[in-house]
Automatic annotation (TrEMBL):
Lineage: Bacteria, Pseudomonadati, Pseudomonadota, Betaproteobacteria, Burkholderiales
Species the sequence originates in: Variovorax boronicumulans
Keyword vocabulary terms for this entry: Cell cycle, Cell division, Cell inner membrane, Cell membrane, Membrane, Transmembrane, Transmembrane helix
The protein, known as: Tol-Pal system protein TolQ
Membrane topology note: Multi-pass membrane protein
Transmembrane regions listed in the UniProt entry: 12-37, 128-151, 171-193
A biological process term (GO) from this entry: cell division
Coiled-coil blocks: none
Presence of the UniProt keyword Cell division in the record: yes
Length: 240
């Protein structure tokens, strides 16, 4: 009746396999929490940078000035600003090659922005697969530790002539600790994955909308100046 059934004491007297399972789950839990914290701040910074650039973009600043600012601020730019810079960079490269066809210029800029968008989306989704794996696998790893612990407990009880609840409880309890820690590792990972997946979907929709809006601006400028493609980089974006 005076047995110490605290989690630490149970783990100290658990079998080696259960101890290794619990150690693995603790390491995985720490890694998943680190990934959750990094992803939270990364997505928050991404949203802030996108909002700042979008306000500047629609403030009436010329595309040339925006592109120059994006080139100088490349290391600290947000996804939307990098997408804009990639489209303008491809547009200017085509113009330097004396391409004057508006459709070719617009298609080149759009393809460059799409490629940049995919790179930004891949970067935003980094570590999400790790969280998904932790959320789906950790309960089964903990269950494995529990099954093994129960097997070990009953094997030890086989040598006893009289089995009581007091003799069974410690072995069962130490085995169930593995399942509890497996759930402790899995639940935050699943919650974090679902939240971040929704946030990334919202960011992706905002970026795709911006690509279409910027493409429309380029198309309007090219249509208004069919004989002077260069004018597209000097006209400020029209208000939405």
């Amino acid at each position: 009746m005076n047995q110490d059934l605290s989690i630490i004491n149970l783990l100290l007297h658990a079998s080696f396999v259960v101890q290794m399972v619990v150690l693995l789950l603790v390491i995985v839990s720490i890694a998943s929490w680190a990934a959750i914290i990094r992803k939270y701040f990364a997505l928050r910074r991404m949203r802030t940078l996108n909002d700042d650039f979008e306000r500047e973009f629609w403030s009436g600043t010329s595309l040339n000035e925006l592109f120059a600012s994006a080139a100088q601020n490349a290391k600290f730019a947000g996804p939307m600003e990098r997408i804009f810079a990639s489209g303008m960079r491809e547009y200017q490269k085509l113009r330097e090659r004396h391409v004057s066809d508006p459709a070719t210029l617009l298609d080149g800029a759009r393809r460059a922005m799409r490629a940049s968008f995919q790179r930004e989306l891949d970067a935003a989704e980094q570590n999400l697969s790790f969280l998904a794996t932790v959320g789906s696998v950790s309960p089964y790893v903990g269950l494995f530790g529990t099954v093994w612990g129960i097997m070990h407990a009953f094997t030890g009880l086989a040598a006893l002539t009289q089995v009581t609840l007091a003799t069974v409880a410690p072995g069962i309890a130490e085995a169930l600790v593995a399942t509890a820690i497996g759930l402790f590792a899995a639940i935050p990972a699943v919650v974090g994955y679902n939240r971040f997946a929704r946030e990334i979907d919202k960011i992706a929709i905002a970026l795709e909308t911006y690509i279409e809006e910027f493409s429309n601006i380029l198309q309007r400028n090219l249509s208004a100046n069919p004989g002077a493609a260069a004018a597209a980089t000097t006209v400020a974006p029209a208000n939405r």
